[in-house]
Amino acid sequence: MRLIHSDGYSGFSLSLFHGRQIPPYAILSHTWGADDDEVSFEDLSQYSGLHWAEKPGYKKLQFCARRAAAHGLQYFWVDTCCINKSSGPELSEAINSMYRWYQGAARCYVYLSDFEMRGSNLGSKDWKRLRNSRWFTRGWTLQELLAPQSADFYDATGKHLGDKNTLSRWLSDTTGIPVAVLRDRNWRHNSVEEILSWAQHRQTKREEDGAYSLLGIFDISMSLIYGEGRDKAYRRLFKKIE
């Protein structure tokens, strides 16, 4: 697992850990902008921060570093730059491990880049706008909601909106996921059909990711075959579930 370390100013570096060597870490849940807007693995590995510090995605790293430091954590994980996506084996390992990484995080920060709270507390109009956040429409964010013991929600300015437990009833109304599942992280008694319904209207950039984003939720591993198409990916998923 590759983690980001901040020097406390504007410098970030990557470190690779294995197994029990992995230190306590925070993890970011967010939605991607355009690929060129995000700070990538190549950016952190090869180039001067003067280049990628101008990217919109740099704000996410700064946010996560500040929150992690406030919680006494030296390391944090952000998918845009902690995975070498040019390596097929590494990408496959990361996707098959991602649920476990969110599950094992000391802190999970949900960063809603398209929502800003207008006052010091959420008002009735805020709740309506919050429901329309892109974060609730993406396939990958389903496991990012389910896996962590807790998840803290923040708006685009870094204001804290609440956590998965305090917001559980509203999150249940918005996502269709039962409150008990959100609080206890236990869906062993929920049917496969019900679990799939939680993901039914969510979207992914690549069609196969609709199936791949459910691997951790069903506690299975599967090879990634981009280009196989949505239907074949789901058929393989269902065969594994059986």
Automatic annotation (TrEMBL):
<protein>
    <submittedName>
        <fullName>HET-domain-containing protein</fullName>
    </submittedName>
</protein>
<feature type="domain" description="Heterokaryon incompatibility">
    <location>
        <begin position="25"/>
        <end position="114"/>
    </location>
</feature>
<dbReference type="InterPro" id="IPR010730">
    <property type="entry name" value="HET"/>
</dbReference>
<dbReference type="Pfam" id="PF06985">
    <property type="entry name" value="HET"/>
</dbReference>
